[in-house]
Amino acid sequence: MNQPPAPLLRRERPRLHRLAERGLEWTLRACGYSAIFFVLAIFLFVFREGAPLLPKLDWAQVLFSPEWYPTSRVHVRYGVAAMIAGTLSVTALAMVLAVPFGLGAAIFVSEFCTGRVKETLKVVIELLAAIPSIVWGFIGLSVTNHLIQRYLPAPVGLNLFNAACLLALMSVPIIVSIGEDALKAVPDSYCEAALALGATRWQTVHRVLLPAARNGLLAAVLLGVGRAIGETMAVLMATGHANQFPHSLFDPIRTLTATIAAELGETAVGSDHYRMLFVIGLMLFTITFIVNLLADLAVRGVRGKTG
Amino acid sequence: MGPETGKKRARGRRAGALLAALALAAGVAGCARSAPAPGAGKLVIQNIGSDTMVNLAQAWAEEYAAVAPEVSVEVSGGGSGLGIAALLNGTADIANSSRRIEPEEKARISARTGQEPREFLVGFDALSIYVHRNNPLEEISLEDLHDIYAEGGPIDRWSQLGVPPIPGARTDRIIRVSRQNNSGTYHYFRDVVCGRHADFKLGSLDMNGSKDVVELVSRTPAAIGYSGLGYQTDQVKMLRVARRRGQRGVLPSVATTLDQSYPIARPMFMYTPGEPPPHVRQYLDWVLSPAGQKIVALTGYVPLRTDAPATP
After folding, report:
1. Which of A132, B106, B249, B276 matches a 20 to 30 Å C-alpha distance to A41?
2. B49 touches A at CB < 8 Å
3. What is the ipTM for the molecules in this complex?
4. Cβ separation of A155 and B222 shorter than 8 Å?
């Protein structure tokens, strides 16, 4: 009777050990769920601050008028149409610049280069993503501002084009790294089959790889869009912050994010102006939510199956 | 048996330590906040508000450190609105404001603290009109400024003011540089130039600081902007301002502000929420003394007294 318990004792794990493991598991679980909690809490907070104003707003004016006079003495108006146009135009232009570069770089990194070049490129592109946006803003204010005014027919250097260039540079790393992952996820057998059929490298990329990685690449672009829409400091500094509909590439504009950044610090807490800035926050929340949802659906390939 | 249990206990202790470390890491942020500031015992005056006055307030604070080493004045900008909001939230002892407090704000502070906020006039600021140094314009009237800046004003192009093409500008359009709509400077300029019952024209470039306005104007040949007299640089030109078209314009300076011939000058205030405590009161008394007022003149603003050395 004395002999058998010995191996049992060895197999049995110490109580503290088990407790600690369970504790760790719960901690990790809490970490995981906390993301959901924080998103909901932030949304609720933004909504709570903005909500009292929602029924009072004249929505036709808010959505279709450029007249943003939150501190007017005579006639307070909360038109954000020009800012929506500004946000959309700067994002669209940034994507026109960033998507060819980003996807091109992703294809190059994943398919056309190997070894040290590949490693160097990946590290440098990741470094590009690590530059803080205030630094980009500073570059926009002092470097590109100057260049644009000197070499392009722009009367003022802080404009749509300047900000779009910066946003493009900021979203390229995201497009490259996620796009590269998408290309890497395509099974090697696809490429091998294409090569076996006598396809050239370009034909393989164009006809096999890109269609196969389509959803992942779309997700990469949409996450780039999300980055560009949500960006604040760089666009505040580089767009010129002028509340008007852009008529040309070189018009100064104003974005939704920059308006919040510029004005929230100085409004009295609880005033209509303060609440309106939170309503703008809700609009941004909705826009980025839709963009991220689309990206997510793209990753899952739901679009591919249904469409 | 003995060594084995010892091993187990050690392992258990390690896991426990890990847990404790995690818990500590989560708690650290909160602890750091509640820890007392270094150098406790020193009296701190929080001085928040107007961007226009931030240079001046900083200069005062630095000078006052020599006068009363036991008091430390912490200055930050952000705008007059922010300063008054900070009084309301109780985070500021003194709010700097380049506009008079609004009756509504006054009522809110009284409701919050049970005392009327106290107002101290500490100096004057002249708002200069800046253009690029290539701009041939020398003089402008308040009426022209109204037509340029106010909603519905008919002037959009430099040629309407009779200005020949500006070298390097590439456009005849007037690029209006303004301030964010909470700034005291914005409010003051709107009241004086656009009128008390009007708003700005849309599409101006709204900068977030007095210095940014001057900097943008210095880089943009077709631009016009307004900012404090103290922010002048060699890169921009200050315009003479006339009250009406056809009258002679006046260059902003200490003398023209004090004799009120310059039309866009305004008082600068400090506000306290109710009667200030003794150390704040002493600071304000010093600010209003000849020593404090000398600094007003040195930083490019206009002091209350003419006996302070007037450097333009």
Report:
1. A132
2. no
3. 0.81
4. yes
